[in-house]
Every structure is written in structure tokens, then in C-alpha cells.
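Re: the 351-residue chain
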Amino acid sequence: MDKRKTAYVLAVCMGLTAFTGCGTAEQKNYEQAASDLKNGDYENALQEYTTAVSDGIKPAQSYRGAGVASFYLGNYEDAIEHLSNALKCDKVGKSLKKDILSYRAAAYLKTKSYDEAMADCQFLAQDYDMDSDLYFLTGQVALAMDAYEEAAVDFQQAYGEEATYDMAIRIYEAYLSKDMEADGTRYLEAALSTEAKNAQDHCDRGRVYYYMNDYENAVKELIQASNDGNLEAVLLLGMVYMDQKDISNARALFQEYISKAENTSRGYCGLAVCDMKEGDYDSALANISSGMETAQNDDMQSLLFNEIVIYEKKLDFATALEKVQKYLEMYPDDKTAKKEMVFLKTRVNTN
């Protein structure tokens, strides 16, 4: 950061800019930013928080909001910069500082800046009471650094603080990302030792069985959850049937999900996969396009990747290569996409 930019940041944080007054319009803009962030409208939230920073309105909170929005948009370097600026501001309360450091550690983890991520985690451990999320985050960082024993201790602490299906799945997925599925499976097994109390529990149990490839029990749990009104279970049940090559039932469930859900992107992604299984690639592209209208974050990534696969299936290697190159600009750490690009380059060069 150059000296002029640094001076500006410090001036804003110390309340020395010309925009020190919190007018009605500016305050409403800040409140709208908070609402958009809560509702997952991260692009608008980022714009509004950036405006709030320029207007000198709650600088620490505004920088934090911009950082969180950038994080969920996948702009991790920007998130780190915004969150670091928030920490430089005056009057950063202890709870706000904990939140900012947690997000910054997560952003550092995404950029593979493991030493910096661990430094934030260690600071949090020294100055705050650890909770399940902080133990889990520290475990993730330790696992990324190949500190397996330390990660195991942190994950045990996380599950000890929050022995839920969700935490078991999060730990399982963390281990799965390092090809250590067996270490994560024991958490799934531990979660299944508890009884379901409501529709969400049945849905979570169904997801656990799905991860364990126990489709029979997954179907039982997910049908129970969907009968009790859990919409997420409808989507998961479609995925189970997809894995079992029951395309007809899978398609019906994805269509049911679309008819009931507010965000329909995952349902359209499911339909696109059904189309691919049946060789109807034009219909698959149409469903991908429909899904993109409401997709954000991981849902958008799945749709964009499937779009690449569809063009490859259509033997339109030039378009597939163009798509994967744009995809990797957005998701540069996707190893599968990198391999796909290498393959597509060979196909384009030989045609």
C-alpha cells in the first residue's frame, strides 16, 4: 500500500475525513449494506460498505463488512486487505476484533498463507475463549500445514464443544480434502449414535449416510425429512437417486425443489446433470443458464464447472477451453480444472 493510501485509511479510521457526519442518507446506506450482507447479496453489500467507508460511517464495521462480502465473493486478497484495515481503526471492540481476526484467518487459509492464518488463530487462542468454530478453523489451518496431531486435537475440541451432525460433516469434509477420509468417518459414525429429534436431524443423518455411501439408510432418513417439510432433504434425495442411476426419480425431485425453493440454482444444476447423463447437452446448457440467474459462491462454481464439461461432451473443445480459462481466473486453486485445461489445450491444438 502506498503512503497516500495508507494515510487515507488511517484518516478514515480516526474519523478525520471531511465526511465525519453520519447523515440520514449515509446511515441508510450503511444499514442497507448490513441487510444485503445478511441476505447473501454480497456484490451490493460490498459496494455499499465501500461507500460507507468513504463517508466515514462506522469505519471498522464498514471495513469488516467489505471484507466479509469480499470473502464470500471469493476475492480473498481483497478480503484480507479490508479486514486488516478494520483492525487499524480506533474503537474496535473485543467481540468485533474476534470476528475480524476469524474471517482474516479463514481468508489467509484460502490464499494458502498458512503462517499468517495460524498467527491469527494463535492470537485468538491467547486473547479469547475458544469456541467450536475457532477450534475447527485452527484445525483446518493445522491440517493444511500437515500438522496432523495438532489438527486432530483441535477437531476433537471442536466436536466436544458442538457434537452436532453439521460439525461432524465439516470435520469429515476437512479430512476428505486431504485424502484422509478414514479420520473423518469416525466423526460421522459418532454423529449417527444420536437419535433424530426433528426433520433437520433426519436430513443431516441422511447426508451423513450419503457421505458413507449407505444409500438405503440415506433414502429412509431423507424421505422422513422431506415428508416433514424439509426442502434441503428433497435436493439431497435427488442426489442419492442420481448416484444410484435412477435418473427419473432424481429429475422429479430436482423439479420439486425448483418449484418450492427461493434459490433454485442447485435444483437446476441437478437437472443439468440429469440431462448430461441422458446425453441431452443443449437442455443441460439451458438448465445451467437458468441456475446462474440465482446462483452465488459454491453454487455458481458448480454450475460453471459443469458448463465446461457439457461443452467438452458436445466436442466443442474451443468453447470449453475458453470457459475453463475464465473459470480458473475465478477459482485458480481448482486442481481438477487445471487438468481439464491441459487436456482441452491438446484437443484444440490437434483440431
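The chain has a mean pLDDT of 90.
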